[in-house]
UniProtKB/TrEMBL annotation:
This is Prolyl-tRNA editing enzyme YbaK/EbsC (Cys-tRNA(Pro) deacylase). SUPFAM superfamilies: YbaK/ProRS associated domain. Pfam families: tRNA_edit. Coiled coil: none annotated. Gene3D superfamilies: YbaK/aminoacyl-tRNA synthetase-associated domain (3.90.960.10). InterPro entries: YbaK/aa-tRNA-synt-asso_dom_sf, YbaK/aa-tRNA-synth-assoc-dom. One of its GO terms (molecular function) is aminoacyl-tRNA deacylase activity. It comes from Pseudonocardia endophytica.
Length: 181
């Protein structure tokens, strides 16, 4: 298993610890079949969930952490949502690539309360596993190419180690060139 991205933490197979996962994340992992055992989960101090604090505290390199951001834009009165997963050392190109892919005039990060309500996940723990049905999941090519990445678990009290290939195989996942800058 390539769970060493979690630094000094001891990880276990995510299906063995559903108590460390938000409900939609646990359901999504359970639906993965054999790939579920490739995902590790480790308990952390919830106050250290933000990427920089997590990496400092647990010795996880920032270049193997990925941030999942919920973006929104309106077109014809309809709000469109998507999730973007980029390495923590980069930023999603919300005003360029994301705006064009959403086909909206203006895209921005979804408000925290909205993102939490729609995903059923805690802010600071939002992850690509268990997103609302029908939402596009856009992945930076660097994410897909990674042997393993640290991502949220849906709660602030744990982190996941997930192979990029597993993320690329998620429903509605698409690799998007130039998503990150």
């Amino acid at each position: 298993m390539s769970w060493k991205v979690l630094g000094t933490l001891d990880a276990v197979p995510a299906p063995d610890r559903p108590d460390l996962l938000a409900a939609p994340v646990a359901a999504a992992i359970a639906a993965l079949g054999d790939d579920a055992s490739r995902i590790g989960v480790a308990e952390i101090d919830p106050d250290l969930a933000d990427t920089a604090a997590f990496c400092d505290a647990y010795g996880s390199p920032p270049d193997v952490s990925a941030n999942c951001v919920v973006v929104a834009g309106k077109r014809s009165g309809e709000t469109r949502y998507a999730a973007c997963l980029v390495l923590a050392t980069t930023r999603a190109d919300v005003n360029g690539v994301v705006k064009r892919k959403l086909d909206v005039r203006k895209a921005s990060f979804a408000p925290m309360d909205t993102a939490v309500e729609l995903t059923g996940m805690e802010y600071g723990g939002i992850t690509p596993l268990g997103l609302p049905e029908g939402w596009p999941l856009w992945l930076a090519p660097e994410v897909v190419a990674a042997d393993a990445l640290v991502v949220g678990s849906g709660i602030r009290g744990s982190k996941l180690a997930v192979p990029g290939a597993v993320l690329a195989a998620l429903p509605n996942a698409e690799t998007v060139p130039d998503l990150a800058r």
